[in-house]
Amino acid sequence: MQKEEIAYSYHTFMLPFVFEGKFKEKEPWKCKNFQLKTTKEYNEYIYFYKHVQDALFGKKCDEAAISKYYDYEYEEGSYCIESKKGTFVLDLDGLSLRIFNTNVAILAFNFKNTRYYNQNDILAINDFGRRIYPQFLGKNFTVETKDSVLAYTLTLSIDDKEYKEDFTRFDKVTSLQDNQLSLMPIFVQELLEYNFDNFKNIKPVIDDRMFVISQYNSDALSHSLQTLNEKETYSYTSDDWWYKYLFVDGDSKTCQNKFMAKKLIEESSYARWIELGTLFGISRYSFVALTGSWYGKNRLLPHMQTMYFQIFSLLLAYRASIIKFSDDIQNVTSKSKNIEKETQKLYKNYLNFLNKLYFKEVTAQEQGIELYNQAMKIMDIDKYMKDLDNEINELHSYVAMIEEKKRNKQLDNISVYGGTFLFASVVTGFFGMNVGSNNNFSPWITYPVIAIAIYSGYRNFFKKGVK
User: Fold this and answer.
1) How far apart, in whole angstroms, are the C-alpha atoms of residue 416 and residue 465?
2) H or E stretch at 384
3) How far apart are CA 239 and CA 242, in angstroms?
4) CA nearest 304: which of 11, 50, 2?
5) Where does 29-118 show beta strands of DSSP type E?
């Protein structure tokens, strides 16, 4: 009998990006219509409100769908991270792409770790595995970056293909000066390049890091962090490892103030189940869980891979969509033509986003409500939405001002038209149209008078700038 393989941790790296045009479905990408075939799928579906189900679980992969979900079909795969902390090989456990109707998408890599149990290895996997381009460059370009936060290489292997990113394209000044330099790693380019008309218009929307969903199964560590100290405070609130796991620090803590670090941990931890050995953490770049080995495998993992994955897919879609709308507003205001039409289109898309994708609450489950609200707060979603709403209103006021100026211009034009021929009308009305036939006025006097009137109106017409 073959011994069951033990998974020490699970890691999902989520890459939100914006794109132009349309996604073209090509093998091995396949659009997946959601169907309730298993109890796992039922539990995932019934967890959410009806309007959220409509956004996440479309029954058809058509243009009317709020979002479309694609699976990458493969037999086997792996992800190799070579870094200053060592080499780590993870098993590929799923590859998916969700396309939202706001022209944002989320590419998700699911990995299973069956080789590395050490808690510092888990930190290194999350930190180095999520980097998609150099955060900074030193005098020797990526040499200093790789000595700090960047992996030496990231290699995605799928069936008989291998895609290796070594970041060497950032080591040339000529490459950096090229505005077409893609920030996407090689393996992402290879996965998506033929599905978009212009892959170089695809841009990541967070920064150099993918969002991390991680679950670490460790009986000893979860027990350690749930203990109470002499001040009746749980150990996790001052634990350095938990801080680094929560905020995805692979090396030293990025906060070297113990009081500030404690405050950040308390704000970002979700400890409802701490005395049962399960602890969650939320940051702007992560959703992590620490739990015991049995509970992690048999209870928590299905939730992490389904309901919680969907919740953070929505949150990332909000962030990406907000950024894209802000960029669209800037593009509209920089145009000199068709600004009213472009604004109308943008506002329609914005209302569609508000009504069909942006939700204040997604589930009736107490834990889901608490996690969602905490994540919304930590990721500043409400603040960004208020800022976006102000930008939309300012754009609307700007366009209204332009339209008002046009209306006033049209009224001026009407006045100019009337003034142009007013004198000529008076003259012809007074003398009659048959000048010189039945009156005593010579055409040699009348015609020049009419011509002068028309010429005066003509000059007035163009001085006013009538268009």
Assistant:
1) 10
2) helix 381-431
3) 5
4) 11
5) 29-31, 67-72, 77-83, 86-100, 104-113
d(CA 20, CA 90): 32
Q: Of all helices (H) and strands (E), which one includes residue 333?
A: helix 307-333
Q: What pLDDT is attached to residue 62?
A: 80
- Which two tokens mark 203? 């841009």
The phi, psi pair for 291, rounded to 5°, reads -155, 175
In whole angstroms, what is the distance from residue 12 CA to residue 19 CA?
Answer: 22
Q: Please give the structure tokens belonging to residue 164.
A: 């290796």
Query: Tokens representing 51?
Result: 């309007």
Q: Is residue 238 part of a domain?
A: yes
Tokens 């009407």: give the residue.
414
Cα(425)–Cα(417) distance, rounded to whole angstroms?
A: 12
For 188-209, how does the pLDDT look when each residue is reduced to its tens digit (9 = 90+)? Answer: 999 998 898 878 788 898 889 9
Three-class SS of residue 77? strand
Residue 411 has pLDDT above 90, yes or no: no
* Mean pLDDT value across the chain: 87
Least confident of 60-64, 103-107, 259-263, 319-323: 60-64
Residues 260-270, buried b or exposed e (16+ Cβ, 10 A)? ebbebbeebbb
Exposed, middle or buried: residue 163 (CB in 10 Å: 0-12, 13-18, 19+)? middle
| Contact assessment for residue 107 and residue 230, using Cβ atoms and an 8 Å cutoff | no
- What are the tokens at 238? 């001052």
Question: What share of the chain has pLDDT > 70, as a percent?
Answer: 84
Sign of the alpha-carbon torsion through 49, 55, 56, 60: positive
DSSP string for 348-373: HHHHHHHHHT--S---S-HHHHHHHH
Residue ranges making up the domain that contains 163: 9-313
Position 60 in a domain: yes
| Cα 252 to Cα 88: distance, rounded to the nearest angstrom | 19
Yes or no: say if 289 and 280 are a contact pair by the CB < 8 Å rule: yes
Distances in Å between the alpha carbon of 351 and those of 72, 241, 386? 32, 43, 14
Query: Is-contact 72 95, C-beta < 8 A?
Result: yes
Q: What are phi and psi of 29, to 5 degrees?
A: -75, 135
Output the pLDDT for position 466: 47
Closest CA to 376 of 325, 328, 317, 324: 317
- Return the pLDDT at 58: 77
223 lies in some domain: yes
Q: How many CB atoms lie within 10 A of CB 61?
A: 15
Q: How many domains does the chain have?
A: 1
pLDDT (0 to 100) of residue 425: 62
**Residue 433 within a domain:** no
Which pLDDT band holds residue 397 (cuts at 50, 70, 90)? confident
Q: How far apart are CA 170 and CA 150, in angstroms?
A: 12
Q: Is the CB of residue 415 less than 8 Å from the CB of residue 463?
A: no
